[in-house]
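Hey,

Quick one before I head out. I ran the complex with pyridoxal-5'-phosphate overnight. Inputs first:
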Amino acid sequence: MIDLRSDTLTKPTAGMLAAMMAAAVGDDVYGEDPTVNELEARVADRFGKDAALFVPTGTMANQIAVRIHCRPQDEVLLEASNHIYLWEAGAPAALSGVTLRTIPGRSGVLTVADLEPHLHPDDMHSVRSRLVCLENTHNRGGGCVYPLATIAEVSAWARANGLATHLDGARLWNAEVASGVGPREWARHFDTLMVSFSKGLGAPAGSALVGPKELIAHGRRVRKLFGGAMRQVGFLAAACLYGMDRQFARLADDHANAKLLADAVRDVPGLTLSAGAVETNLVWADVAPELGTAKAVAGRLKEAGVLAAALGTNVIRFVTHLDVSRADCERAAAAVRALAP
Ligand SMILES: *Cc1c(COP(=O)(O)O)cnc(C)c1O
């Protein structure tokens, strides 16, 4: 089976496993895990921020950010298909007493003009607008790279209006490789950002929340509250360091493989690329009724040895990652072309 359902399905490479086995560890709740400390210092420096906090999941990193930036009765402004809204189980309401203002964008991108009408006046009847969350690359938006100039404008607007900013950068690595824009260039527009090691970089678990010292210290208390303070997790941090150092540059291969699949999608009447273009490792396609449901299409692909994710009645997603080769993707592309009526 060629498994293109997600870039979270990868197994640690032999090199990564060796790095994990060799990790020096200690109790991270005591601040005594040298590998976690190294990872946090390296990640903070990479993004040009004071501090970083290692957490088990991207969801926890995002939800700690919501919690440290907001108080109950506050509101977060975000694009309607952001992960924080769609796929984090209603956590902002449940964990932080915060409402989300979801604003439809284009391929996940919001501009100042989209956000501006949703800013609440300072009035006791209203929720308090408090935080803007952007996502880069945008998952549901088709893996698009958020234009840096738009990010700069949104960030300046947020600051001028007293709003904090957070970036969901689960796939910021992919945005860096696809755009050539470096980590600090992206990060400087945000108060906090999160990155995930468990997607394209291939670690079995792990994300980090990155930002100023005081906010990350607060985040450390919230991590404990949310049950995410772990002990000898240098074993995982070693995998994350290995992914950053050794499995980052190869993301370009994933992007090239995704373009191959996108070309196949374009050749099939009844399949349309959701975002119009494919810039990174995600290929989202809309399925027209003449091809059947997304589930039916995924079923036919499975018979041909290819697993894709049916996400909704008429949307299908292919994701390239380090456990699928160029040859795998060529075979998958042939299976996609064979869907043509
Ligand atoms: C996967 C993902 C997350 C959450 O990461 P988990 O580790 O699965 O909790 C957050 N944001 C985006 C954009 C993602 O794709």
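The chain has a mean pLDDT of 97.

Talk tomorrow,
K.
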